[in-house]
Amino acid sequence: MPRQAAFWISLALFSLCIARVDAGSWPQFRGASTGRDDSAAKLPEKIGPSESVVWKVALPPGHSSPVVFGDRIFVTAVRDQRLFTIGLDRDSGRVLWEAEAPHETLEPIHRIGSYAQCSAATDGERVVTFFGSCGLFCYDRDGKLLWKRPMGPFKNDFGAGNSPLIEGDRVIVCQDHDTDSFLAAYNKHTGEVVWHVDRSEFLRNYCSPVIWTVGGKKQIVVAATLRVVGYDIDMGKELWTVRGVSRTVCMTPAVADDGTLIVAGWSAGGDPGEEIRLDPFAVYAAEIDKDKNGSLESAEVPDGPVKMRFSQIDRDKSGDISRAEYDYFRGLFEKSKNVVMAIKPGPVGDASETHVLWKYSKVVPFCSSPLAYRGQVFTVKDGGILSSLDAAIGKPTKQGRLSATGEYYSSPVAGDGKVFLLSRDGKLTVVSASSEWQVLHTADFKEEVYGTPALLDGKIYLRTNGHLYCFGAK
């Protein structure tokens, strides 16, 4: 082949690759902080283990969600207590590479948790993954390690679950644990710390940070213990707060198409009529502090809300609960509010009374994040209770129980006028994205599902705890 012809063929192939990369992406947990595919691409309605399958590949288990950029898909996984970042070919599902994250020890995790709970983030050139056991890792798109930052294990017996994101030249990481919580930005090229913000007032939470663009300026938003906070992306300075959420937040906010921020938080004792109230420490400890040492050991504490949360209240993991730790949690129980709320753009300072458009405090989900789509806010609560709220005023438009009545850890996603929901036991429900939503399709994958699907270019990338599927029109 003449040299000139070979040059032009190579250039054409390179251009096709760049066009593919620029066509779109789902670069982090829930895409671009929305959980929506707002393109005109048609998505298949009837998907399942044997319906609309483009490809299916076996994967080691993990609770992280797939992220997609150009011709690659990235996930994290666990195999024989070894931690991996995996790169796959988007067209075929073929595994292209695996990179192991070495660790000295594995931290405790929840009984149904995973050591691969945090989803990856990518900008197409690099992929960043976070494992609480050993920290933050950055690879190029072909799996070459570029840098790493050791971290953890953290003081939290549920494990790490907040996913990182990449914004501009920075990797944003929020880790809220029983102690030493922080928000930090790292140089995505070198891994060096750009800024680090102490969040020690916040205990264990599982809200991943999102980017909210207000007035052309990007800021980082995190919802956590009792309040939502917006941070300046350049320096990490707190810009605003809205108070009045739950004492623990496991859901990630969503940005509606009109720029409104939708936030939800739920924890036990935060529903009206079901509040948890603790006696003052002196009263509570008078009878049970047998050795009169001024602190409470596990053997001394009777069954009840304190016993159930002993490891959380014992924030420093000393093996006993001090008066200060008890009083802190007593205050959390008193102030905790389970709620779905809408925050309008532009808050400054304490905006609790000025920028909250509406609040809704019934059937609030626990882990499954809210979805704002086509004028509605969709939420799904454990038990399969699906609610749609008018996104402008927060008024319920429809509520009903799905046939998939299990727990929900996967968050709803939407595109092409459809909302996709997955229960923990692998049951899929597709509903119409309307105020009077209707069930369009159901399926059973017969494998547990914790991750949230990715929607891109007319394809649905769905991860069970044993496989990764690609669905699309035949």
Task: Label this structure with key terms.
474 residues, 5 helices, five-stranded mixed beta sheet, mainly beta, Recoverin, domain 1
CATH class placement of the domain at 281-334: Mainly Alpha
Number of strands: 37
Decide which structural class fits the backbone.
mainly beta
| Distance separating the two termini | 36 Å
The residue-averaged pLDDT reads 94
Q: Which blocks of ≥5 consecutive residues have pLDDT under 50?
A: 1-23
Q: Into which percentage range does the β-strand content fall?
A: 35-45%
Task: Note the topology.
Elements: H1 3-22, E1 25-26, E2 36-37, E3 53-58, E4 67-69, E5 72-79, E6 82-89, E7 95-101, E8 121-122, E9 126-131, E10 135-140, E11 145-149, E12 165-167, E13 170-175, E14 182-187, E15 193-198, E16 210-214, E17 217-224, E18 227-232, E19 238-243, E20 254-255, E21 261-265, H2 281-288, E22 296-297, H3 305-308, H4 310-313, E23 320-321, H5 323-335, E24 339-343, E25 349-350, E26 356-360, E27 371-373, E28 376-381, E29 385-390, E30 396-401, E31 413-415, E32 418-422, E33 427-432, E34 439-444, E35 454-456, E36 459-463, E37 467-471
Parallel strand pairs: 2-31, 19-25
Antiparallel strand pairs: 1-4, 3-37, 4-5, 5-6, 6-7, 8-9, 9-10, 10-11, 12-13, 13-14, 14-15, 16-17, 17-18, 18-19, 20-21, 21-24, 22-23, 24-26, 27-28, 28-29, 29-30, 31-32, 32-33, 33-34, 35-36, 36-37
